[in-house]
């Protein structure tokens, strides 16, 4: 793979997925795309890149994007975002949405489903406090492969041992051979959808809570700002956004503001009140 071919691949990945691949990531490309070459019977990465540049192989393009997209996730990952949901956000919205009895949650970049299913289990455990409530959990990802896995709800022993309390494993999973399948009632709580964050996602509607964790770190500053601005547009006036531990809106966008009491939690920035002079001008 020449420097020119590597640069062409970087341009392709950024344009199609938002992934900003730094020049020192050649080793990552080689390790992740070797299996794609084998699958499509290509003799080298150079051959793969030539096929992509020719624009004739949609299946190859899709496989390349999915191979380069990080799908690292596990149940109740990092714990704090789920403690926040259970102890702070859920009580808040149970009170503030008592009239409508409706709550909408979006998990962007949901990967193989552990994040939205973790939220679904928390909500199921709180069902006695929520009679008559309608809950929407929308979970999206750019990878159709991981979405199919998520919909099926099968996880191996290693995956259910990462962060999942044994009590919830016993309660909400059934062992099928050497796999564990999450219960139909939990699977039915999550609506999995294909979505590329580079595309328009306004059709998803508005949300009270958005989880967009550990994906913005792969975007450049301009794309981060654009995605965050569009997420803010979908959030309710009192909506909440949770980012990953190494992500922030500070210095990226002024559409969202850090909650000073909770790390990683952001709300929509309140519009500035008009000054008396502005109000007078506005009346003319």
What's the count of strands? 10
Uncertain segments: none
CATH uppermost class of the largest domain: Alpha Beta
- The secondary structure category is alpha/beta
Strand content: 15-25%
Domains (count): 2
Keywords:
3-stranded antiparallel sheet, 284 residues, 7-stranded mixed sheet, single chain, Rossmann fold, alpha/beta, 2 domains, 44% helix, 12 helices, Chemotaxis Receptor Methyltransferase Cher, domain 1
Question: How does the SSE layout of this entry go?
Answer:
Elements: H1 3-17, H2 26-39, H3 45-54, H4 58-68, H5 80-96, E1 102-107, H6 114-125, E2 134-141, H7 144-152, E3 154-156, H8 157-161, H9 166-172, E4 173-176, E5 179-182, H10 184-187, E6 190-194, E7 207-212, H11 221-234, E8 235-243, E9 256-258, E10 265-268, H12 276-283
Parallel strand pairs: 1-2, 1-7, 2-6, 7-8
Antiparallel strand pairs: 3-5, 4-5, 8-10, 9-10
